[in-house]
Structure formats: structure tokens, C-alpha cells
Task: structure prediction
Amino acid sequence: MHARADGYRDRGWPAGTPEDLLQRYFELLRGGNDLERMVACATDSGRHLRLREHTGGIGAALAEMTATQQLLLGRDPVDLGPLARVAVHREALLASRPYLPASIPAMWLRLGDVDRAEATIRSGRRAEPAPADLAKLAGVMAETGRPDRAKTMITEAVTGARAMTDRDRRRYAMLGVAAAAVGLVDPAEVDALFAEAERLSTLEQWPTSQVSSLTHAARVSADAGCLDRARRMIRRAVTVTDAIPETDSRTGALASIAFALATAGDLDEAEAIARGIEPPDDWDAQAALYYVARAAARSGETDRAAALAALIDDGHFRAMALAEVAGAAAAGGDPLRAGDIARSITIAGERAQALANIAHELIGVGDLETATALLDEAVTTLGLAKDTAAKDAATKNVGIALARAGHAGRGAALIRTLPRARDRAEAIALVAQAVAKAGDTGHATELMHEAERAAWTDDNVVPSTDREVMLVALTEAVAATGDLDRSLSVAALIVIKSRRELAVAKATQAAAANGDPARAEAVARAQLRPYWQTQALSSIAAGNPQRAGNLLRDAEQQAGTDAESLAVIAVAYVSAGDTARARTLLDQIELDASVIDDERAAVVRAFSAVGDLDRATRLLTTFEHDRWRCEALSGIALAAVETGDTHRAETLASDITDLAVATQEPYWPAQAHLMAAEIYQRCGADDRMHTSAALAEAFAHGITNDHARSNALADVARFAIATGRPDHAEAIRRAIPDPGRSARVLVALANAAPPDRTPHLVGEALCTGPWSAYVDLLPYRHPSVITTIADEVLATAPPANTTTPRQ
Result:
């Protein structure tokens, strides 16, 4: 079997690879503890692709990676090299997950492939399957005669929704699960889920946000048939809206209420609110009229919908409303009127949409000939469309209607012209549904495989921000190991030019700090534009006193009058011992209204660095946002500690916490108390340090957003490590919901641990979260891990982009 597997591996695991080599082979390796071959499987992108196409998801490949990592982690000593290689492939596989349309798993289920449906829904872009998606699939399970499996899945969905700790994600999950659970669980449980979503909506900080959340929940509840709960939520939203100060705009809140009322079937009240929004040409007023017109059309009140559409001045909203009215007229048995309304629409994409809406109604009553004629007209109309969004939406609708009318080939061909792969995937799956309904399950299966391939196609011309940020961090980390050439190779993978320059600037700074200032300077001058070159040269100068004067004079020329750049250069002059020149530069800075807060914070840091704490303090009144004011206060306080003025530093620490708590932003009190704890530590005020650290931890635990709570708790844990409390840091780590932030704390613990414990802790981090979350902590004690990660990233990088780099 090894020989057969090697042969297929050498050919890149082609289509037709035997099933035993894809599924049973790895279990054979695992049973024999054949780590070398297990690592080869876990780091083989071609195998991962074939497994995905074979099973419909990434679960099988992830299982192979997890098993390999756990076996590697159990070895003594831990070999970090292969662990790092597997970590790179695991993160790449997770990053490849698309936003899979719900139509794909649902259609696989209707075709009888239950395992593939589950594998698909568990492979979407999220750490775990969204409870709402599981609940929807449970509904299809019930529809297709699988009540036991449906019950198991809906129970998993409800449990998953209740287990969520992030407030917004929990609210969305509760709504999705509740809507899908209607008819599958006890009505009292459905109402309890909606009630929890309502409660979470009322916890929003601002009244307008509360109204938005409550009315969204009401619409979902109404669509699910739970009208009493929906109307209760709407009344609550009205009460909140009435309390909005008259100085604030209520138009958005009123539009949301009108939309919710219309969805709940209360058209008279909804129309009255929509007509009363002032000024009537406001975007929210126009949107409200459209939403009520759409609801009226869909409830069969065609004349009311037409009258409301006539009130809409916005061309786009009016066209969408008329498309709905046309469909309603056809549904009401008046296809001639429907056609006249459709042809009156001046926006070609919406006109085609209207014609498709009419065709769908005619198909429903068996008039395929008239429907086909309308669809032919719609296809011609699409050729005239200019609005991309309207054209794409209409193309999907027309293509699906063609398939329902018996022209699946034409429908699929039209849908294949859609520019976005995600849109193609969703629509092709719906074409497959029409084909299956007509009895051709073989063709439907072929279409479903096409839909899957489209869903997994990454046609986004804008590079992933996560990947770009990851590469910036890796570039700097590799340079910090002393390998500038490899670092620049990683930077070359970054598509956005400004991000690539940021990475190169960080690499030159790290290279200079690592003992190669001459090479760092040459790279900075050759590859960076003025802003980043100023940053890089200033940093290089700070550690290279022999060249500091020349480097900083060149940086001044590049900086011009840019306040932030001049501040950075001033700090570098202080490091080089030329405080007088630093003060001269600072006197040249003009902080007009165009200078934003983070740039002002850089200037405050510069004044603090030259010892002018009074002037730095006076600048605090010019900040727009308290967040940056807190950051600046922290810098002044730490500078005061350096001058021996601990009383002033402690007073500023108290000011920071008072200011942050007053902002009513949940994240900043935790950060502020942590800033204060660091200041108290530097001052030697241990009691106050411990009090502030405890408050920071308490505020961090109280943050309802998972991402923000993870960041705050990770910062608190790292402070605990820095102050000699690793056991407490480990306890905090276990409460961090985000695996990346948790892994970052593990690496910080490794850096502070005795050498014999370090490999296992780093290995655990490599198995816990994405390596990109903590790569900056690895270079100095674990340079070989950084080199391995960089080599694997370079080896698996997609082909170089031959297009012009983005700015």
C-alpha cells in the first residue's frame, strides 16, 4: 500500500485516486505510529484538495492534521519543525474555507447524500458550524424523511447557540436557530430562543442600535410565523425610539420599525410610519416606502404596492419596488398588467428581474410557453444592464427560472457568466434542484459538483487582509532571526503595496537591531517610499550612533512637514544623544485639524522623550478621542517615571482609568487599568499595581465581544507573566475564547519558562491556534521555528501575481 500511495502522491493525488488511499491509508499509518508518512500526508496540499473533493468538506484533512500534531506533541523531546509545518498547512486549509451557500448542503441532502451535506455545512468559513446553519439543515432533514437525524442536529444547534459567549454572535445564532426550529421542537422552546434574542437586543449600548437589533429580531420572528413575539419586539422598539433625543435623527429607527411592521403583516401602521418620515427624500424614508411596498406586493395587495412605488423618488428603490409589484400582479392572475409594469422599469437589471418574477409565477401555474417568452425577453434585457449588482441578481433569477421552465442547459449557461464564484455556486445548486425535480438526478449531481467547485474557488481580486497581516508579521520575525534575504522573500508575497512597504520597513528595523545596519539602510533606501523610508531610517539611526547624523538628516528631507514623521525623527535624535535637534524639530510641527489622533499621540511621545512633559500634557486637550488620550497619558506617565517623578506618574495613571471608564466603551477600561498597572509597577507601587491588574482582569472578563475579550484577557495574562505570576496567566489563558490569543499566551509562557519546558509549550501553541497570532514572540528563543514556518509558507505560496501591485 505504501508503494501505491507513493505513486499517487507523486502524481499529485489525481482524480480517480482509490478511496482506500484517501480514507483508510492514513488510519493504517496512525495505527503504526508512522510519523514520517503521517507528516507527509498532513503537509500535502494536493491530498487535502482530493480529500475535500471526495468528501465534500475539509473535515477529513483536518482530522489527519490534528492526529499528526497530537502524536508529535506526545514525543519527548518535542520536534517543533514538523509541528510548525503542519501548523502552516492547517491554517492555510482553514483560511481557504468559503462562505458556502446554504443551497449546497440542502441540495446534497435532497439528493440523498447525507454525509456529504453534513461535511459541507461543517466546512464553511467559521471555527465551528454556525448553529443557525445546522438548524436549517435539520429542517431539510425533517422534510426529506430523516426525523431522528433532524432531532439530533436541531439539539446540537440549540446547544451551540446557548453556549456562545459573544453577545452579537449569540443573538444572531438564537434568531437563526429559533426560525429554523419552528415545527421541529416544542413551541415554548422556540419562543424562549426568540425571547433570549430580544433580551440581547436590549443590551446594545446606543438606542439606535437597540432599535436596529429589535426590529431585525422582529422580522425574523415574523417570517417564522411567530407574530405575537414579533409585535412585542416592535412595541419595545417603538418605546426606545420615542426616547431618542430630538437632536438625534430618528429616520433610521422609524424606517426599521416600518420594515418590521410590514413583515409582521401590519401594513396600515407600517405605511403610516413610512409616509410620515421627514424629509420624504431622505434615504431612510425611501427605503421604508420600498420595504412596505415589497411586503404589500408579497401579501397580494398589488394596488397598494403600486401606489407606494409611485411615491418613491429614488430610481433604484422604485425599480426594485416595481419588480415586486410585477410579480404580485402575475401571481394575482393578471400577467398582461404584470408585463406592462415590468416594461415600465427604466433600470435594465431590475426590468429583467421583474420579467423573471412574472415567469416564476407562470411556471407555477404551468404556462411554460409564456414564461419562456418572457425569459427570452429578460435575457435580451440583461445585455442592456449597466448596474452590476442589479444585473447579477437578475442573472441568477433568470437562470433559475429557465431551469424551472425546462431549459436547464440555457439556465446554467447564463449563470456561468456571473463574475463572482459564490453567486455561481448558489445559483447552480438551485438549477440542480430544478433538474432533480424534473427527475434527472444524474445531471443534478453533476451540477452539484460544479456548484461545489465554484464555492471553493477564490476569485476575490482583493487579497485577504488576514493573510497580508500574517505575512507582515512573518517578514519582521524572519528578519529578527538575522535572515534578511528570506524575510524580503516573504514580503514579496504581499500584494498591497502599502502593506508590503510596512513589512519591508519592519524588516529593515529588525535587521538593524540584529546587527546589520548597513544592509538594512541599503534596503530601506532602495525599496521604500518617503513615509516608510523615514520610519526605517529613524529606527536604524537609533541603534547606529556613528551614522545617526547622516541618516536622520536624510529622514528629515523625506519627512517634509509630516507631523508623525517629524516626531519619530525627534525621538531618534534623543536616542542618538542630540536632544537639542529633537527640540528644534518638534518646534516645527504644526498640529492643525488635519492631524489625526494617532499622529498627535506620536508627537506627545516625542515631547515626552525630550523631557518636555508639560508641553506634552498641554497637547492632550487637542485630542478628539479619549482612547488616544489614554494612550498619550500612558506615554507621559512612563516618561515621568524615567525622570524620577513617580508622584506625577501615579497621578496620571489615575487619570487614565477615570477617563477610560467614563468613555462607556467596554474594551478600554480593561486596557486603561492595565496601563495603570504597568505605570504603578514602574513606580514600585506594588499594592496599586495588583489592584489595577485585578480591575483590568475583571473588566476583561465582562466584555461581551469574543474578539475584544480575547485580546484584553491575553494582555492581562502577559502582564501576569511579566510580573512573575505564570500560574495565574495560565488560568486566565483557559478563559480566552479565541485560539489565536490563547496560543499567544502559551508562547509568552514558553519564553518565560525554563528551557526544558519551552518546546512543549511552543508545540502546544502550534496545535492550539494560528501561528500568525504569535509569530512575533518566537524569533529570539525559537529562530528555527520561524525559519521552518517561512520556508513552508514560501514553498506553498500561490504563483506570483503578474498584475500591477495594488496601492
